[in-house]
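README: folding subset

This subset contains proteins for which both the sequence and a predicted structure token string are available. Records are stored as plain text. Below is the entry for Alpha/beta hydrolase (253 residues), shown exactly as it appears on disk.
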Amino acid sequence: MVLIPGATLPLFVWEPLVEPLVRAGHRVLRYDLFGRGYSDRPKVRYGPELYERQLTELLAALGFHAPVHLVGLAFGGLLAVQYVDRNPERVRSLCLIEPDGFGTKLSLGVRLMHVPVLGEALFAVMGERQLRARLPGYSRRPELIPELEARFLPSTRIAGFGHALLSTLRHMAIHTAAPTFHRVAELRIPTLLLWGRDDRITPLHIAEEVRAALPHAEFHIIDDAGHLPHYERPDAVAPLLTEFLSKPLPTAD
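--- output ---
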């Protein structure tokens, strides 16, 4: 099983799920995307091909040769869907936690970040401040925010983070991936869709767009949770995920 993080937070965001998944008998891989956490930050285009190659090469290097379960958070959910679209034979099932790909109207600040040179200048001046200001929207539990800040912000100060994030904004279909989701739906890969009821980053109403694109997906709303339901409510998410993974699936592990 592979846990794919979102566009900014590193692999620590999966910690509450790892133990119950391992206890249930799963081999679990979590990793930092290129440009995030403590992975390399190559000065290249951060588009679908880069993220696909990273996952493919990582699976090969670690000996994951059979089809895998992919679990993706937000941007990681979009990456999981794109990976299935390009490599359906490599994926056994999907769990998508509030996936990107649909959408909200871009704010003026985000639109400006798309502009070459201007985006870099703005990020150099305001990037960390904006990332810090965004964190309270990730959880409905304010006591978690200092922990998120302490574990996340240091990795954003490593050279190359800004380039990776800006290049991702410019070259990924973060709000326009509906056609990819519809293609993946035709594959009928078992899919679990989870959403925090109080998500302020990717609001619950967007779930209806995702469900329309993936009508076969099993869907659950997690109460008392925001954008990180597995981090805020592992007691609710872990049983749903382990039960989903225990169901008969088309191929063997």
